Every structure is written in structure tokens, then in C-alpha cells.
Amino acid sequence: MMIDAVDAQAPPLPSFAAYNIRFLSLSNSQRDQWTRKLANVKHLVKQYTMTALLETHVDGAKADLFFCRHVEGVSNYYASGFAVLVQQEWASLHRPELHVVVPGAMVAMTWAVEDTKNFIFFMRLDAHSEATRCQQLVQATRWGKDRIGEGDWVGFAGDRNFVYSAEERQSSSRRAWRPSERMNREWNGWLQTIGAQVVPQAEFTWGRVLSNGSDTASWTYEVLDVVGSSIVSSEHGMQAFARRADDVLHPRVSDH
Questions:
Q1: What are the structural domains of the chain?
Q2: CA 173 → CA 54, 142, 157, 203, 243, distances in Å?
Q3: Which of 4, 69, 84, 97 is most buried (most C-beta within 10 Å)?
Q4: Residues 126, 129, 132, CA angle at the centre, nearest 5°?
Q5: E strand or H helix that includes residue 20
Q6: Could you report the per-residue pLDDT of 97-139, keeping only the tens digit for each?
């Protein structure tokens, strides 16, 4: 899932991508997957100023030694299971810093241009517990209140791990499904605090098809991955898009 941002009346903002790599495939038995995932990352860092890897499941030292050091032309930042690869020229010019917002769930890359502070949040909220996701958003909201001011620029990308509206989910199940009011309330509170909005996502970002051994199968498709910005209107000269990782060389080696 990616966002590409351009504003003719302000210093160029970086393009960025969040890639749910779902482990770095470091074991010897996964060498083929490691090679394909590395090829995907090399492809992304050439297209985007920042590429964040989600679900590395290793610390920064291990991620650097066994994976990210094989990617050329980038400066690497690590925190709380996230790896963010930034094109070297941009990193040298802006000297960004990576901060932990919610341990294991959200980080923020920050830098300043004159008096304007800039933030890009990368996230992977908890996949199993709504209560945990809500608490993570409460913590992220508190972090944003203390740091983000009027006029600052904000972007975000990642896996929120829940569906916001009925239009973002389709399933073969006949069981009625409704979005969670509690989950949406915490999400909206975080968006309001950071002053950003979600870029419309035109396609599902996650899907699962399960066969029961007969001619029928159960299926579910959802929008779990999101990107957004504090400026997404075309009136500001911005261009933003969100999509699955279909444009990488080997899309099937990772989750989404």
C-alpha cells in the first residue's frame, strides 16, 4: 500500500510505501523466498523515497545483517520490529529520525523543513484483539497530541487489521456482519488528532479462500491496509493512490 504525494507550492514531499513482508525468510529452507522478498524490496526502494517493512519479526541488528544490508542506495532505520529504508540522497538532505509510537505496532519517521514538522506513521495494529487495537490507537493518539501542531504535514501507511465499513468487506458467509463502533471511534479519534484522512481504496487488500473439499468454497475479501495524508485534495496539487503490492516482482511471497 502506497502513497505518492506532490505539492507544487511546497517543498517536495517524499513518496512512501509500506510492505507487509511477513518475516524476512532468514532460514536456509526459505532461501528462495528470501531471494524473492529481497528482489521486491530492491524494486520498491527505487520507486519510493521511503519503504517500510512490516512484520520483520526480528530486531534491527539481525534485519540489517541478514537482509537490509543487501539493498543498495538506502539509509536504514530500525525500531520495534519495523525497518524503514530511505533513499540516501533524501536522507542525507533531511536527516529524518525514526520514533516508536506504539511498541510493536506503530513508528513515526519525522523531519523538519524550516518551521514545518513532518510525520509519516507506519503501522501494523494487532491482528487478533479489538481491545488491543483500541488501546494501541489510544496510545498513538496521546503521542500525536503531544507532538503534532497546526500546519504540520502528516502521512501514514500500513495494516490497520480491521474493516471500517460494510463496503470494505465481502464474504460468502450468510452471517450478518457490522463494523465495530468502538473500533471506528478510536480510529477516527486518531485521525482527527493527527489531522489526516484516509485515501480512498478502490480494491480489497486482503483475501482468503478456503476449500471444504467439495465444489464449493468459502471466501472473504477485506480492506485492511490503508494510506492517508493531511493533504489529499486535488485542490492542493496532491496526487495519492493506494493499492495492493501487485506491482512488485513477486507478490505472492508476502501476506499483503
A1: 2-253 (3.60.10.10)
A2: 30, 38, 29, 20, 25
A3: 84
A4: 65
A5: strand 16-20
A6: 999 999 999 999 999 998 889 999 999 999 999 999 999 999 9
